[in-house]
Amino acid sequence: MERMVAEQWIEGYSRLACDMVPICSFCYSHGGYNGDKNGYNLPAGTDVFISFIAACKKPPVYCIITEYMSQGTLRMYLNKKEPYSLSTETILRLALDISRGMEYLHSQGVIHRDLKSNNLLLNDEMRVKVADFGTSCLETQTQESKGNMGTYRWMAPEMIKEKPYTRKVDVYSFGIVLWELTTALLPFQGMTPVQVAFAVSEKNERPPMPPSCLPALAHLIKHCWAANPAKHPDFSAIVSDLEKYDECVKEGLPLTLHSGLVSGKAILERFSQDCQVNNNDVKISLVP
């Protein structure tokens, strides 16, 4: 799609983006659109999605007008970064923005079906908003869909194979995006889309997990892209885990491998440090 930026004050937005859409794409992508400015009944003020302002479908102009996201896509942002250079705080902040948006989307019975770093946009405050609902659908409509939806590098195996699928395909895609955040790399770099599709669906391959990835994040990523979709966590669980991780990092505590909870030993070590700083003579120990 061709994108233009307009300097116009509309409904509180000083800058707007206008995406010029081919007629066939426009008609398809708005098959689930209900006429409300918030698309799938998203409440006004929901700040985890890019705001839809208006659309034009009068020949020869077919376009979608949305709020303008000044920092571009998440993929553009990562392309400017050195590999493995994002701080844990940044990874968690961006991952929480994405997962909270997807948690809400799924709570409304909607599947995105093309969640990827190119469809995640950044604003001036470097907060992420979920965008591009051109292939999204109600979960009850998945059986009616024909052919592949989405992009192979982020696409779940069951979608590649055109098998029945659920909202868990978005969780798989999120796992790939979370891997991108930890590495800043393009998934399956050096492979063609067809090669990726074959590797993922027939050989159960995934992007290599970097040794520098925190065990807790690596554990979450592997759960998200597990071969069995039934093992994928819901976004509510993902948000809960990421919030625990974020709290640990802010408190200066290490992340544990599985649950996202800090080990008792780590808590006692931190408590001991605080006591020493405050000159408190306190003896503490773990109780079996």
Automatic annotation (TrEMBL):
<dbReference type="InterPro" id="IPR008271">
    <property type="entry name" value="Ser/Thr_kinase_AS"/>
</dbReference>
<feature type="domain" description="Protein kinase">
    <location>
        <begin position="1"/>
        <end position="245"/>
    </location>
</feature>
<dbReference type="InterPro" id="IPR001245">
    <property type="entry name" value="Ser-Thr/Tyr_kinase_cat_dom"/>
</dbReference>
<protein>
    <submittedName>
        <fullName>TYRO3 protein tyrosine kinase 3</fullName>
    </submittedName>
</protein>
<dbReference type="InterPro" id="IPR051681">
    <property type="entry name" value="Ser/Thr_Kinases-Pseudokinases"/>
</dbReference>
<dbReference type="GO" id="GO:0004674">
    <property type="term" value="F:protein serine/threonine kinase activity"/>
</dbReference>
<dbReference type="GO" id="GO:0005524">
    <property type="term" value="F:ATP binding"/>
</dbReference>
<dbReference type="InterPro" id="IPR000719">
    <property type="entry name" value="Prot_kinase_dom"/>
</dbReference>
<keyword id="KW-0418">Kinase</keyword>
<dbReference type="InterPro" id="IPR011009">
    <property type="entry name" value="Kinase-like_dom_sf"/>
</dbReference>
<keyword id="KW-0808">Transferase</keyword>
<dbReference type="Pfam" id="PF07714">
    <property type="entry name" value="PK_Tyr_Ser-Thr"/>
</dbReference>
